Amino acid sequence: MKVLIYGAGQLARMMYLAGSPLGIEVHAVDVGSEKIVNPVTKQISDISLSHAIDHADAISVEFEHVPEHLLEQAALSGKLYPGIEAILTGADRVREKRLLERLAIPNCAHQIVDEVSQLEGAVELLGDKLILKASRDGYDGYGQWRLNERSNLPALAQSLTDLDLKKVPLVVEKMQSFEREVSLVGMRSRSGEIRFYPLAENLHHQGQLHVSVAPAPQLNESLTDQAESIFRKLAEALDYVGVLAVEFFQVGDQLLVNEIAPRVHNSGHWTQQGADTCQFENHLRAVCGLPLGDTRPRGIAAMVNIIGFDAFGLDMLAIPGCHLHWYGKVVRPKRKMGHFNLSGTGYSELGEAMRQLGGYLPAAFFPHLESEALRLKGVS
User: Fold this and answer.
1) Percent of the chain with pLDDT over 90
2) β-strand pairing of 25-30 with 2-6
3) Where would you tag: which of 155, 203, 233, 234 has the fewest CB atoms within 10 A of its CB?
4) Structural domain of residue 168, as residue ranges?
5) DSSP H or E stretch at residue 348
6) Are both 268 and 345 inside the same structural domain?
7) How far apart are CA 100 and CA 10, in angstroms?
8) What is the pLDDT of residue 139?
9) Which residues are annotated as a binding site?
């Protein structure tokens, strides 16, 4: 079987590696050049995009910000999974908010702003602690602004005057207090079968995910039921096929949707060693019409992102349950270079592995390792 992935980054690479044992041949599309490339070697193929579409058994994406004309071309083939509506919704916060409202899914109080002059009204309605998000092309903390007090509103408004808010509106959200962020990675098959990995707890630094732990500590049945119910509503409304990630803020006993990602997701990387079938294989199974794999965790697992840093050896691989996934990129600030997966039979064992990993790595680039190791060692 052949699967064509729009986007040629690390997620396409990991799908390629997951597909090889199944005999699934994964090719990627560089969406800038529209060339077909090998997701691992980056070698450019001499076949055309139209030929690749014709000969693919399924087409999917590794990220949602694919040029719309390419998505429309792929959708015409009848092989695009998930569908174009789901991908466009994940790429546009306004579409996403409207979907959540239509389905009565709890999310942060917000206003859509397409003129700077509307910010005053947003403050009146939502308060003077706000986060402003570009509705498109924002990720890892980019395309976001914060208002911490009303007196800063004129300066903030001035900084936004050069933006075309009619073309790319802002989603202005009330800055929500929450206990933690959790995410649910699940998948839906072509036949409508749905499976879930356990909720993961996510720790961020400067707008980027640094650590995910799964299953999240202190989970209860109510939180799991809420998350899975919301996933089902979204997946069925979008007639979704493939892996879908839903990020939540936990506020007391309630989950509020922060955002959705119509693809394999960074907070699901732990599944490569921590679950019977990883998210990359399950995505390929779903889009190819194959049976979904077992999502049960093998123990307790964590993913630790490597961001903007490559100056380390490999001695940490002596840590039991430690695995490195390296993406082969040139280092740049804030660039995801790879990740470590750690695993243990319990939280204390995982915390000890995390403590040991922190001994090999600088805290400036891995700011959560020490504190998270201590926390996990205290979880029963």
Assistant:
1) 95
2) parallel
3) 155
4) 109-174
5) helix 347-358
6) yes
7) 29
8) 61
9) 93, 133, 138-144, 181, 204, 258-259
23 sits in the region (left: phi over 0; alpha: psi -120 to 50; else beta) called left
Cα–Cα distance, 4 to 28 (Å, whole number):
6
Give the per-residue pLDDT at 143. 85
Whether 204 and 191 have beta carbons less than 8 Å apart is answered as no
pLDDT in tens, 68-87: 999 999 999 999 999 999 99
Q: Which of 267, 260, 266, 258 is nearest to 238 (CA)?
A: 260
Preceding peptide of 154 cis, ω within 30°: no
**Residue pLDDT, tens place only, 329-374:** 999 999 999 999 999 999 999 999 999 999 999 999 999 999 999 9
Can you tell me the distance from the alpha carbon of 204 to that of 310, in angstroms, rounded to the nearest whole number?
A: 20
Q: CB within 8 A of 239, min separation 6: which ones?
A: 83
Beta strand 208-214 with 300-307 is antiparallel
Global confidence as pTM: 0.95
Specify binding-site residues for ATP: 93, 133, 138-144, 181, 204, 258-259
DSSP 268: G
Q: Percentage of residues in the chain with pLDDT exceeding 70?
A: 98
CATH, residue 247: 3.30.470.20
pLDDT of residue 145: 95
Helix/strand/coil for 10? helix
pLDDT tens digits, residue range 3-26? 999 999 999 999 999 999 999 999
Q: Within this chain, do residues 28 and 159 fall inside the same structural domain, yes or no?
A: no
Q: What is the enclosing helix (H) or strand (E) of 203? A: strand 200-205
User: In 3D, which of 216, 328, 228 has the Cα closest to residue 270?
Assistant: 216
Sign of the Cα torsion 78, 82, 83, 87 reads negative
Q: What is the pLDDT of residue 140?
A: 57
How many structural domains comprise the chain?
3
Residue 66 carries which side chain, given as an amino acid letter? Answer: V
Question: Closest by alpha carbon to 136, among 84, 74, 63?
Answer: 63
